[in-house]
C-alpha cells in the first residue's frame, strides 16, 4: 500500500484591509483566496512573532 501526502502552501489572503486603527490596536479584514483546498486558519504576526491563530477573516490585534 502506498500513502501519499500532499501539502500545498495556501495562497495569500485577498483584499487585506485595515478596518479600524487606534493607538493600541488595529482591526484587519481579508477575503479567503481562491483555491481548491480549504484554509482552516490564519496566523497573525506582529514584529515577526506569531501572536494568534484565527479561523475567521477579521481580527483585532492589541498592543500595549
Q: What distinguishing features does this structure have?
A:
single chain, three-stranded antiparallel sheet, mainly beta, two-stranded antiparallel ribbon, 0% helix, 64 residues
Topology:
Elements: E1 14-21, E2 25-31, E3 42-46, E4 49-54, E5 58-62
Antiparallel strand pairs: 1-2, 2-5, 3-4
Protein architecture, described:
There is one protein chain. The protein is elongated. It has one domain. The strands form 2 sheets. The protein has a 3-stranded antiparallel sheet with strand order 1-2-5, with no helix packed on it. The N and C termini lie far apart (about 55 Å). Helix content is about 0%, strand content about 50%. With about 60 residues, the chain is an all-beta fold.
Structural class, by secondary structure, is mainly beta
Percent strand = over 45%
N to C succession of SSEs: EEEEE
Helix content: under 10%
Distance between the termini: 54 Å
Spatial order of the strands in the main sheet? 1-2-5
Question: What is the domain tally?
Answer: 1
Radius of gyration: 15 Å
Low-pLDDT runs: none
Mean residue pLDDT? 81
Determine the number of helices (DSSP H or I, runs of at least 4 residues). Answer: 0
Cα shape = elongated
Largest sheet: 3 strands, antiparallel
Number of strands: 5
Amino acid at each position: 500500500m502506498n500513502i501519499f501526502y500532499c501539502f500545498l502552501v495556501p495562497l495569500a489572503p485577498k483584499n487585506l484591509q485595515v478596518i479600524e486603527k487606534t493607538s493600541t490596536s488595529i482591526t484587519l479584514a481579508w477575503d479567503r483566496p481562491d483555491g481548491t483546498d480549504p484554509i482552516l486558519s490564519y496566523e497573525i504576526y506582529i514584529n515577526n512573532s506569531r501572536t494568534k491563530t484565527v479561523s475567521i477573516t477579521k481580527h483585532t490585534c492589541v498592543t500595549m
